[in-house]
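Self-study notes.
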Amino acid sequence: MEYGNNLPWFLSELANADEDQLGDGAIEVYGENDQGQEGSVEIEITDLASAASTRILELESQLNWLLSKVGIDEAGVYLAAGNSKLDNELSLSNLSKIINKS
């Protein structure tokens, strides 16, 4: 199962759950949508752990890719495929745009 942007929230709910909430290998998470409607979802703990593991591996891969494209020295951050210096104020999204152009 994919949890999208809710994955950190669900993991936080799991981390803060009382022991009696975990008895059957699942946790029920309660929430509210943008329209103020309340609801809940039951999440299998093993599914949540698997999704978290997959997401961590994806993020590690993305970070390693990004780190392969840049270098850092005393003068600042530069693109590995050239000597283009980057302003330290650049956000990661701007850095990503610059890398994708090269």
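Second protein, same conventions, sequence then structure:
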Amino acid sequence: MAEWADVYKDREHKDPSRNRILIYKTMPNAAPNTVFPMAIRLQGLLRDFQVERFGNWTGQESDALKVVQHVTLSSGGHKKAWDSTIDSINLVCEYTSRCLHIPMQGTPYDKDLYLQKHAFIKRDEPLKLKDHILKAIDDLEGRFLCIQEPWIPQQPLHVGDLTETAKIMAMDSMLLTKGDFVDVGAELDFVTHRDQYARTILKCFLTCSYIVWIIPVGQVQSMNLDNKSAPQKCKATPPKMDRPTKKHHTMPGFDEV
């Protein structure tokens, strides 16, 4: 990993406990002063999830800081493949831990993986604009207008469908179902905090960047892929900077948006 990954200090981030990013050292044809946070792919069965544009928002401004879109992935009982996934995550975490010389709290093997994505971030200064900054299609009920002065809406979570021709087509998140087999993109957010013994510990949180629907729950059940659920008796099988630094996020190329 030392050949292609590095830990970067994001000087624009005001919270010193969250300003470390794991990035790719080099990217082909990358523009100057551009960094690419490292992304990983995870595959598993959907459990609890809420991926609408405004996630779990109640509509109250007091809740804006806590609003997230979230996804929980399960192994479906496939221990060997799941343990390999956790090994990879912990390897990345161990590398970051050694670079920063801070002990790391690893990801446990026997639990589901939880990923989230914040829907809003706080503005440095209130926006002096009365027009709606979101398109009508992105906010059909006009819910965001009441908080757009102090808050910035984040990009929506991209959801795609892997077709029989191996293309990824944009799809409505309403079609996702608990038990579907999915491919999920994740970036790793590292946070330092003090434990109960006042020791500085590094923790890793997974930020969801996209979801690709691979096998629907009905076919998962007919193929007995979910060993954690009761068996029950269809879609394709898966084939130091002077200027502000731009952060580009690694995303799959959707063939249609």
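Instructor comment on the second fold: The longest helix spans residues 79-100.
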